[in-house]
User: Fold these one by one.
Assistant:
Number 1:
Amino acid sequence: MALAIVVSTPIVASAQPTFEEIVEALERDGLFVESGADADPNDLAGALRGIDEVLVVVLAEDESTGADALAEALRDLGRFEASVLVITPGEVAVSSESVRYTDAELDQALDAALDAFDAGATTTGAVGAFTDSLRLTGGDTAAPTPAPSGSSTGGGDGGGGGLGGFLVFF
């Protein structure tokens, strides 16, 4: 009897957001939080207060093409004059070609976010560490510097402090 109940119970698959849904939310709100992701949009908006050159995407599942590819695809649209920070359960990445921040500043901010996750911070706490790092550097508005994106998948080839605490968190 239990088997019949389990078999007859419909399984609802989680629908991943479309690229356009993410773009629309970024244009409207400056951030996108997928339903089921462990982050509150209001708290993230608070962490982003005063930083209008960074857009944030938080996904409930890893992106099939990778967080780095999604960050770059969103930035390459040409609709945003901001860096795009993408956080998934297994990756954290930031897009390149910031109008305001240099490669070194974005890498330092990404390291701060990863360190926050390693220390047990929430997603909002890690975004706060990212933006606080950018607030400390002040950015370079005189000469935009195209920069390669930073990304970490928790592999141990250096930089970023790993994702040990981040993966445990999720």
Number 2:
Amino acid sequence: MIKALLMMIAAGAVLCGGCTRISVATVESAQPVGTPNLVPDKRVMLDLTLRRKIHVVQVNEGVVSGDLKQVQVVLASNMTKPVSINYAIEWFDENGMQVNSSSTAWKSLRFLGMEKKTVSAIAPRPNAVDFVLKLQESLARRSIFN
């Protein structure tokens, strides 16, 4: 009986070896000079598992090269252990038609515990005026312990 209990404890310790908690410490200016142009956003989160792990902090937009819209989205992890996601940004014209571009490709992003990261994209053409950020939990990183 004692042997069985000790083996269960040892197995639990081995399995929990992947449960390491890694958090990120940050230092930033107490009085930032830059003023973001925050965008009111609409959020539709259908994946409840992803919703518990990642949240959108803010959406900021600007203009670069005189006529191309740029968007930056600050994402933050709610977890104390690493989390991996995939994201894509799609652009649309003033008629709501999707503007095809290479920036629509899915990209990977890995967060350490409680870390914030910024994803950004520049519109492929001047007629791209709106965007949609798509988020998806990385299936390659999913495990029964997440």
Number 3:
Amino acid sequence: MENKATTINGRKRKPTERSQKTQHLILNVAKQLISQHGFENTTAKDIAQAAGVAEGTVFLHFDNKQGIVNNIVTDFYERLQKSSEAIVAQQLDPFQKMRALIKNQLKMMEADWQLGRIIFGRHGRYVDNEFADEFYRLNRNYARLYIELIDNLKENGRIRTTTPSPLIRDTLLGSMEHFAISNFPHKRTYDLENFIDQLFDLVFFGCSQRSSG
């Protein structure tokens, strides 16, 4: 997450170490409050009080509450990207890497579903038009990891080449999001490994009856 320059009397100044710590404090407090109470029920005043700073200090570092959300989304994607790239770099079978990517994302989403709703819901995607380009850049960079693995499977004859890679990727990611929405808000008991097995069987091997001949 990049630290934005602080504007004082119309002049942009590079953040000092102290201002960076304050910005991180505000962001961490905002994550906790939004996680506990939701986006709509958390105000900038709440965040300022919990962080022990003036409300004006919050707006010095973030233009508005949506600006805080934008930083939360960016922080999530940066952590997701870093952990996912580490998975892809391992000496594993591409299918194993794919399974690990899916499990990693779902575990991160489950860890704090209130934030997950913001990141994968309307706050991350639709509310702030100025942030839309950045959101799609982050999402595109992450989704590219799936495309690379899918293309690798095609090149090695592991799956058929006639199905477009973006369609396979979107089916995987869409199924994961639906699984999260169906289970995480209600704290249902689920078998994650079984879900991944079923998803793989459907996406990569189909669900038609195989001929015994």
